[in-house]
Hints:
By secondary structure, this protein is an alpha+beta fold. The chain has nine helices and six strands.
Amino acid sequence: xxxxxxxxxxxxxxxxxxxxxxxxxxxxxxxxxLTQQFxxxxxxxRMQIEVLIKEPRWRIxxxxxxxxxxxxxxxxxxxxxxxxxxxxxIERVQRGETQDxxxxxxxxxxxxxxxxxxxxxxxxxxMTEAHCTPYTAHPGTTKMHQDLxxxxxxxxxxxxxxxFVQRCMICQQVKAEHKKPPGxxxxxxxxx
Length: 192
């Protein structure tokens, strides 16, 4: 869904001419979830997602905004500070010796991409976020590379993404193989 510029509008009750299963369920609205299912609130707190609740005059709780704090940029900044090669590139940028790199918001960038240091755990987290979350739905190697290269760059990025997708068990079980099925086995002749 992130590839589309869309707005989701809710049409309550009678205004919704073609009612679907979600609009018929009483527990499908966020207000019902907040009042009836406290386990959801505990899960949201555990994931450090901030829920802002507004109480109007008639004291019905409604969720107006959900703000998700994502600390990936802080992790990238910390990893960049620990990397010796990036420290050398930052010094070159500050002296004006290179045009390949820039510093924007304390992050070293190569062109418009954020330069990811040689930290396997950080790369794994970025690729997991781009591949295994419900809103990305396990894209293939090409789509995942196109999505990641909009914001990030590291050496051997395409190769790392290919290996990551090949290791994904869900992709291996679900995606069809596009090879011609092998024919019948041809036995070898018995020597005389």
